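Hey, I was hoping to borrow your eyes for a little while. I'm sending you its amino acid sequence along with the backbone structure tokens. Take your time with it, there's no hurry, and the full record follows here.
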Amino acid sequence: MTQESPETATSGRTALVVFAHHRSDSLTAAAAARAADRLASAGFRVDLLDLHADGFDPRNRVADEPDYEDRDKTYSEEVHAHFRRVRDADVVVPVFPVWWFGLPALLKGWFDRVWNYGLAYGRRESRMAQKRMLWVGLAGLTEEDPNADLIVGLLDGTLRRGISEFCGVRGVHTAVLFDSEGQGLTGEAREHHYRGLLADVDTAVDKLVAG
């Protein structure tokens, strides 16, 4: 799915927003849509990738195992089709729920299969060097929870350093939307809380766009 505003998509830049959740009515879906709208308003052509609706299979297979003796290996057509969308994007924004202090299987499998050797990494001149990324993770924990540091560590360690920077992406931003469950909140207080989380998405996208 691709969306853009004819009035604002004038920069020639493309943003790939990768949405990883099985429910289209989830807060994760709302956050992904908010990021897409903000990027479109900033002049980007937005390529919105809904991994679940797209039917992406996160399970690896022999055809997509990297061959470290052949960086030009041809992988499955599904992998190459998805990587073309990554290749064509100036910015990449994964939006996902944090489950068990990690990525949901759907998104983890996307990185396992698509960000493959010879494609996203493994070349002297990185194909990802000119890209920027924003990781947006939704966490059920509150920011005051004793384990909140594990969430921050996931985004700033495993994801920013272990994936983005490892693949040559240097302009990397992270944002955690804590308390995605709205613990103990009801009625207007709960709605106000969720509006605040979506406003945080705007702030994170603005920082990404500003560089």
